[in-house]
Amino acid sequence: MVLTLGFFGLAILVNLLAFAVFGLDKRRARRGQWRVPERNLLTLAVLGGSVGAKIGQRVFRHKTSKQPFAVILNAICLMQVVAAVAMMIPTSREWILSGVSFF
């Protein structure tokens, strides 16, 4: 139970951070200041902040048409949704976890 709460707390934190960094980057872009590298924005998404990144992208209207960034962010979101759904199916969860323990 504590592990689950810790996981969700971490997920919320990463998503809030991703959202905030998108806002920061948009603000800096408007002011002509130093920008957050796209690699860092995508790393936050990969680390579990894809929902916050997508919400930030929409709310701040930031990097919505920038390619290939938008495509990569959408792919990250899709992979995470597929993984989350697969983890909800018992047979898929066993298969995924057995593969994870292989490494």
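(the above was protein one; protein two follows)
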Amino acid sequence: MSVFGGSLHNHDQAPIKGSVQIEDGRVRIMTDRRRLASWDQSQVRCERSSVFRFELSDGLASYEFHPADPVAFSDAIGAVVDLRAPKSRFGLADRIRQAIEPD
């Protein structure tokens, strides 16, 4: 079992302290008092929106998660980085385009 602490941000509420638990093919989003969501890991889409922010969604509900350890969380959940964005925050898209496109 992997548990990642951090803060949860829902679009219409103030940020709260929470965690994401990954165990036995399930992703659980928790606060200290209750479970907010429990999804099959294969149904979860996790997109890295910045170095420290991740958008978790099952297609119906979504949460923004700011983990204390973004690298370990990204590896554990299998986060997606969209390199097609014209202004990639990571600078990777431009470097990849330069490497594969002739001058």
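Reviewer note on protein two: The longest helix spans residues 92-100.
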